[in-house]
Amino acid sequence: MNLAYYKDKYPRLGIDCYIEDSAIVKGDVTLGDDSSIWPFVAARGDVNHIRIGDRTNIQDGTVLHVTRKSESNPDGHPLLIGDDVTIGHKCMLHGCILGNRILVGMGAVIMDGVIVEDDVFIGAGSLIPPNKRLLSGYLYVGSPAKQARKLNDAELAFLKQSALNYVELKNDYLAQG
Ligand SMILES: CC(C)(COP(=O)(O)OP(=O)(O)OC[C@H]1O[C@@H](n2cnc3c(N)ncnc32)[C@H](O)[C@@H]1OP(=O)(O)O)[C@@H](O)C(=O)NCCC(=O)NCCS
């Protein structure tokens, strides 16, 4: 089974989600409607929770994890991902908060306590160090990532379109059975 318990917590899925057979989704993980999880994704909601919104896609080989609660950090770091978000291939998202309409380029690493506001594009291979805040409407690239420039209208529209493309794609896979 690619959905699994951690203690008494079992993943909760919205309507028409797609989870590819080789992915593993464990514990306190919630997916909204029409979201998709692609091959070899590991989403481990054990020492804290993972929340994923509607129409969000998590692409092949991406790792999602969280940080436990402690005396110095009573909430720990859950992982929260909003609506219409595209997470590219082989990303690492750990204990961070992402808003809506975001594209995380292939191979990006986003660390604990990072906040990514709505409508942000993160270039492939970027590394976002702990507790940084990425501002709405900008492209960020590099390791460590820096603000590169403002997004143009076509790029802002693409953030939403990318998510919709993946809704269509996962519907094909669901129909195929
Ligand atoms: C960043 C990105 C959006 C291109 O932005 P752009 O403004 O069109 O950039 P350009 O291609 O004009 O390149 C501008 C400069 O940035 C550099 N650059 C491009 N992408 C970069 C990246 N991801 N990280 C660091 N530098 C990058 C280029 O080498 C170039 O440098 P130079 O000026 O020294 O020659 C694109 O390269 C990218 O990373 N897209 C993500 C794609 C992806 O992963 N999608 C998800 C898969 S489903």
TrEMBL record:
Superkingdom classification of source: Bacteria
InterPro entries for the chain: Hexapep, LbH_gamma_CA-like, Transf_Hexapept/Carb_Anhydrase, Trimer_LpxA-like_sf
SUPFAM superfamilies given in the database record: Trimeric LpxA-like enzymes (SSF51161)
Gene3D superfamilies, alphabetized: Hexapeptide repeat proteins
CDD domains according to UniProt: LbH_gamma_CA_like
PANTHER family reported for this sequence: DYNACTIN SUBUNIT P25, PROTEIN YRDA
Name this protein carries in UniProt: Gamma carbonic anhydrase family protein
